[in-house]
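Task: complex structure prediction.
Instruction: return structure tokens for all chains below.
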Amino acid sequence: MIVLEYILLIGVIVCAVAAPLCKRLLASVIVYMALSLLMAVLWSLLQSPDLAITEAAVGAGVTSILFFLTLKKIRELKGTDDE
Amino acid sequence: MSKDRERARFTRRLTAWVDGEREPKDQTLFVMEQHPPRHVRQSEEEFQRREEDRLRKFFNWYPIAAAVICAVLVAILLTTVMSMPGFGEEDNPINNEVSDRYLEYGAEDTGSENVVTAMIIGYRGFDTLGESCVLFLAVAAVMILLLRDRKNTSELEVRQIERDEAEAMSHEDLILKQVAWVLIPFIFLFAIYVLLNGETSPGGGFSGGTILGAGLILFSAAFGFRRMQVLMNRRRYSAVRTFGLLLYGVLYGLYIFIGANGLPNYLTGMILLIDLAVGLVVACTMYGFYALFSRGEI
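Output:
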């Protein structure tokens, strides 16, 4: 279990560093979403399932959707019709 | 007399400002590119050159400043973490009589097996009332900013939206539709399960409400806004949202006055209802954000 925790922690750090360094905003949002998912698994490993459920739904789900919508509004979704 | 007129004028100006017909007074703060007044303005090339110079300087200093601020922040946070007691040790300051009390009497006091729910809804219910109000007000603020009506929508925007909608109708996303068709019942089922089982298992109002909101968002994204309006139009949305908050206020008021401090606990089933109220508010907040961000209407 402890190995899995370390792997997840490294993943969280990598995502956290990568999110602001991405060139494309869409990639940033997706990396941020991955960070939230890893955090959700970590929360459940730390025995706080309440937080894990909320983190998965809010962090990975709703926040990312709001970011995607904002990107669509400002015409930053590359590779779609908006370009 | 003149005071009345003054007030009427103020009200009219305020309404105009809220409706977006009148600009706030000082806008120079928000303008990035500042042209000097015409009579002292240098030639266009000169201005261009200076502007480029300014930008280049900015972009040279920006990474350095960002790195310095980041390093300082990381240093401060790391020092704080280092000085904190270790995770899960026995003589940590968090292991005091308060958490003992919660763990020991939580189920008895509030009728909730899950200590987290007992704390959020029971012991710290007043906090949760504040949080629900924050969510309610957040949606209200987003509505003020983004809700479209006759007054703040130009014809160009209306045509743009119609074009987008027609395009979305002509390119139906088959994968999204089929997956949503399969998934949505399970998402709603899971949401209701989490909502109703906040007392005995992980979950409760906030998580269940969020999952419910996510399900609504998926439905709206997959099957379109028109079909969503059959389920939830603006009146119904406002009614549900307000009902959730009011229900919470009334129930928690009852909870405080009838059930607190040594009085016999008649209200074991109350946690469930309060959870439902919180869930309604949260779900409405999530869906409201999505609808307002994407279309500016509910």
